[in-house]
Design brief:
Layout: E1 2-3, E2 17-18, E3 31-34, E4 41-47, E5 58-64, E6 75-76, E7 91-94, E8 100-105, E9 108-111, E10 114-116, E11 119-124, E12 132-137, E13 150-154, E14 157-164, E15 167-172, E16 180-181, E17 190-196, E18 202-208, E19 211-217, E20 223-231, E21 242-245, E22 251-254
Antiparallel strand pairs: 1-2, 3-4, 4-5, 5-6, 7-8, 8-11, 9-10, 11-12, 13-14, 14-15, 15-16, 17-18, 18-19, 19-20, 21-22
Length: about 260
């Protein structure tokens, strides 16, 4: 896994550095978190030190104390994650208090062709020294879902986007999770993305085949009237949208466009 930082004068990216040391088994993308109140940057990834199945993967972390110029040696987190799905990238974020959050999919083999691949949330309140984990949503008898995650931290807390059995959802990280699922349109909803603004509103976006769909929710989890939409057939195949909240409290949504090929004649 290669990391590159923008140089100090903002004119170019520096040469890449491989930060995973001697860990292997790295397939899905890792996650990176920058502390807005210091020069510390955290990188996380699932991996192992000996060849083996995805069920044997652990979670690793490397830390930079100088804005990504130099990195520590990788360290295995002292927690059993019960493997990691090879095709599901992890996601991570940090809240205003400096707590770290990692969202990942485990991998427990239940038959020669079936796995339990449940969504778990890991939390550290001491800069990555110790971790706890909790089940977010189960997915039993699963194959290779290729399901992305999304996380967003704002003034009202941390939000996460996840999908299970072809249904995308989002939830706020709190003691009792209240899961908001995408409205049922008859199509699978995948690639959930979330962003939260300074007012506590949440932009939840997902993809249905190649339709880009979104809805804004208030801090209580209620859909905001006339604050949703759909772009039919707009997304490039296998792509996902990206969402962000602006300083003014508005939202921006980006996606890879798609135009059907025109046949000759």
């Amino acid at each position: 896994m290669l990391h590159s930082r923008l140089n100090d004068d903002g004119s170019a990216f520096e040469d890449e550095a491989n930060i995973i040391g001697n860990t292997i088994g790295f397939e899905g993308a890792g996650a990176i978190v920058a502390d807005q109140n210091s020069s510390t940057v955290y990188a996380f990834w699932p991996g192992q030190t000996e060849p083996g199945p995805e069920m044997g993967r652990d979670m690793y972390m490397a830390v930079s104390r100088d804005e990504g110029k130099n990195w520590s040696a990788p360290q295995k987190l002292d927690i059993d994650i019960k493997g990691n799905c090879r095709c599901c990238p992890i996601q991570a974020t940090m809240d205003a208090q400096g707590n770290l959050y990692i969202l990942y999919r485990n991998s427990v083999r239940t038959s020669p062709s079936s796995w339990d691949k449940d969504t778990y949330l890991m939390v550290s309140k001491d800069a990555g020294k110790t971790w706890s984990k909790r089940l977010v949503q189960k997915w039993e008898k699963c194959g290779c879902p290729g399901a992305l995650y999304s996380m967003s931290s704002g003034a009202d807390g941390v939000y996460m986007g996840f999908s299970t059995r072809g249904k995308s959802s989002f939830a706020k990280v709190e003691k009792n999770l209240s899961i908001n699922a995408a409205p049922d349109s008859g199509k699978s909803s995948t690639r959930p993305m979330v962003a939260t603004n300074k007012n506590g509103d949440v932009l939840f976006c997902w993809v249905e085949v190649q339709d880009v769909v979104w809805q804004v929710y208030d801090r209580d989890g209620n859909a905001v009237a006339k604050a949703g939409g759909r772009l039919n057939g707009a997304a490039a195949k296998w792509s996902n949208a990206a969402v962000v909240a602006t300083h003014g409290g508005d939202f921006m949504l980006y996606y890879d466009g798609h135009e059907p090929a025109k046949r000759k004649g």
